[in-house]
Specification:
- There is one protein chain.
- By secondary structure, the chain is mainly β.
- The chain is 0% helix and 47% strand.
- Strands 4, 7, 9, 10, 11, 12, 13, 17 and 18 form a 9-stranded mixed sheet that branches. Strands 3, 5, 6, 8, 14, 15, 16 and 19 form an 8-stranded antiparallel sheet that branches.
Length: 255
Amino acid sequence: MFIHTWIKVHGALLLLAALVACTGPSQVCTGPTCPVAHWPLDELPGATSVADAVQNPIYNTGLPKPGAVQNPFNPGGPWRVPGHSGGALYFPGNGDSYVEVPSTPDLTPARFVMEAWVAPVQCGVGAYYPVVDKWDPNTGTGYALYLEGVGLGQVRPVVRLNGMTFTGTTPFPANYDPNNNTGTWTELKVRVDGSLGAFFVNGTPAGTFTAPTGLTNAIALWMGAMHQAPSGLFHCEIALDEVRLSEIPAGFSGQ
């Protein structure tokens, strides 16, 4: 909505348009978390970009690698599959299919919440499943969220922050089958509020940790692959949906 005000300057009338309220993705956030990026991952086969639904202050648009989004079992970029909400992207191969988002300063907030709906396949003990990775192996800075196989059909969440790694306490199913589009979707969340870190699985607390600070780097953010694999683990496949990054405003820190 605009309010128009006429004022007189040196005998001439000038129209001032004052923006007093706005709607849309760039509105000011006053809540406990402020959206930074939201990738619905609803892209159809043939898509050559992956949309960000939040402008903050720019769209963090991603690129499917090594090519466009594909139908299942076709070579190229990630596969379009049914998701928890609408479509989702499935990442086949050995980490060579992923989404790349160019680095921007807003992708490394000091206090943040990272969320995703995940559907890992069954690979067993010793497997890792990439979710979101912005960890620079050259500088040892940044963050990475992934899953680790802990048993037959079971995984747990793991986060890498700078040179430290933390593991969640709650396992959940790894049973996704891209052949039949069956399996369990699980809501995964990690909150890093200064030194206060916490995991959540389907909204339930799943472990806490003391987080390091200073995660800023200039490396691209990846979904579905990692810049450097966790030591001693082997890659396994995963479907991702509704990936979100939110900033925790200073006024809500510690709450």
